[in-house]
Structure formats: structure tokens, C-alpha cells
User: Fold these one by one.
Assistant:
Number 1:
Amino acid sequence: MAAQVLSRPYDSVNSLPAGTQLDVELSVTILGMNAEINRRQGATTIFVKTTDLSLKKLEYEFSVVEVDQIEQAIAQELGMPVETVRKLISYRILD
């Protein structure tokens, strides 16, 4: 019987093409952020620590190395004011 069920054609109306990016909205409390600015590579990696038990850390990478651009990018990504980002973020510059 399993062979009969598995061999049936199924038309899927709800399909997601490969390579499609999904937008997911999460609600977490952010404890802090650490930014590693790598001027040689022209990129900044942001490590975000949260209070959520199932999602303790987030990591973002941006192709900017100027502090104001980094703050703007992470604020936009996390949906929070730049002023809040400034209160939560610390920087480390790698040369």
C-alpha cells in the first residue's frame, strides 16, 4: 500500500522555488552587540547576543567599515532606532 501512495502524483499548489529568500520577523530582547571591523577586507561582522533560549546569538556581515554606516545597517536589519544600536554596540577594529 505504501508503494501505491508514494507513486501517486501530487500537485502542489503551494511551492517555494529554490533560492527564494524568506523574510522572518523575530521578537527577541537584545543584550548587546559586538562589531568586528576588518578594514583590509572591507567588511564588518556583527555578533548579537539575545535573551531568547532558542536563539542566543545572531551574526550579520556588512560590506561597510565606517561606524555610522554600520550603525545604520544594523538598525535597519533589526528594525530599531540607530540610537538604540549605539547604546548596545561595541567595536573592535582589525587591521
Note: The chain has a mean pLDDT of 85.
Number 2:
Amino acid sequence: MGKEWINLKTVSQYLDFLDSKGFHLHEDAIGFIHYGKQYTKASDELTNTAIELTIKAQKEFDGSFYLSLLETLVKSKVSTRGGAIRYVKEFELVAI
């Protein structure tokens, strides 16, 4: 996905970015993304990173994978994109 998304601040902006790149999410997936963010009290940055890693690992959006990953990152007190990437590599949660 390149580095162009880094300037995006909100989950909505990131979802719009994905849509502009041809990765279209259904309304139920978008609702689930927002639910997961609220449920875990995750930041936009961490939510966006969980979406990105989910898509990279699953080649599509998988709501269960996303929520599990987001919960794991929040419980582990990961707060940044870089921290999330280091965490998933260290614990071999996602092949990236």
C-alpha cells in the first residue's frame, strides 16, 4: 500500500483511500471496522494499521482476523503503526 496512506488521520480517510485504490469494502465490513475501533478503544492509527495488516495477511478484509489482531495490539499496549508491525513480526502473527 505504500507510504501515501501515512498522512491519513482518520479511519474514514483510510477507508476512502482504500476505495480510491480499488479495494472496496462492503457496508457491513465498514460497520464492523468502526465497531472494533469502539470496542477496543483503539486509536485511528492503530485501527488503520490493523486494517492494513489484515488485508495484507488475508488478501481480503476478514472481520474476525481484524478484531482479533486489534484486540491483541491494544491488550499489548501497542500504540503506533511501527510498533504494531514490529509486534506482529516478533510474534509471527502476520507474514509481512
Note: The radius of gyration is 12 Å.
Number 3:
Amino acid sequence: MIRYLGILQKQGVLPLWFADGNDYGRIGSGDVVETMGVHDLISGKPNAVVRVKVTTRAGEAFEIPTKHTMSSDQLKWLRAGSALNHIRSQLGKRS
């Protein structure tokens, strides 16, 4: 799995891990999962925290804290939609 993270990040995908590995078992089939705080992360807000809000089929809602390992350069790729988009935008600034 780890070797594919670089590929995902270059394509503009934000890989997240649950801060507590036990939280993986809290999500069931049919649950609705939403990310919260991604805008803060993309906007460059210092110490932005991305959380996952889970709403179960029974209607119970809870949040799960996550973590990511993206560097500041990789976050630039995310903002641009991909590494290639970021590079293209940087080349355009040099002209």
C-alpha cells in the first residue's frame, strides 16, 4: 500500500489514515462518510485537522480524527489537482 501513496498524491488524491486504527471497525456497510476540514488543509491553514464524519444506517453520527503524511509540496499538488497541473502552472509563470 505504501508504495502506491506517491502515485495517489501525484494524481491529487489526499490519502488519510485514522488516527486510531481501531476506528476502521466502526464503519459499516451502507454508512455515509464525509470529510470535514479538507478546505482548511488546502487553504494552507496551519495545523488544519481533517476529520471523517460517519452517519450509520441507523442515523447515529460520529467523527473520526485522521492524519496525513503529505509534504508542503504534495499539498501544492493537491491544491492544483495533480502534480502535472502544478508543474504546468509554474512553467506558465516563467514565461
Note: The chain has a mean pLDDT of 87.
Number 4:
Amino acid sequence: MGTIGLAMLTLFVMLTLESFPAYMEAGMDVHRWSWVYFVTFVLVAAFMILNVLIGIVLNSLEEARELERRRGLGIAADDQIAPAPVAERIAMLRAALSELEDELRLRARAESGPGPR
């Protein structure tokens, strides 16, 4: 007879895929459809682990981007300042949008050619 703690330890070991075939074989001895549980558990667990790793990578990239922004502003990396304010980001996006609109207008004029005036 097992305990909750032993069951949790077994699930953690299965998460690492160590001795997975032995656990699945033991489950198959109990019921022939137990493979559905084992395969589903491994797929869901692998998906969750992958999401955690992707989250860690994205967080590291965001921190690196913030360090580069601080270097560009001439601020020491260890100084405690807030990230770029929303108003600053909106101003940068508006400037980029204005540049794109101007470029589209110039392309439209160039494609239409010199027309009668």
C-alpha cells in the first residue's frame, strides 16, 4: 500500500522520464488502459516544463534589453530606475508610425507618377 508522498515522488521521477518504462509496465499489469494516463502525464508535464524554460529565456532577454537601454541612456546597470515609462514608449511608437506614413506617401506619389496639375 502506498502513500500520497510516495505517489508524488513517483510522479516527480516520471517527470524526469527516469525509469518511465518500468512504471508504465507496472501500471499495465494493473490495467491495460493505464498507458493512456502515463502518456498523457508525460506529455502535459513536458509541455509545462517547456513553458517554464521559455519563460526563463524571455525574462532573461527582457532583462538584457533593459540593460542595453540603460547603457544607451548612460545609466549604470546597478542603479535602480523604473523601466521605460509607457508615455515614452508611446512617443517612440508614434514617431515610428509617422515615419512609416511619410514613407508610404512618398511611395504612392512615386508610383502614381507625374500627373496633370
Note: DSSP finds four helices and no strands in the chain.
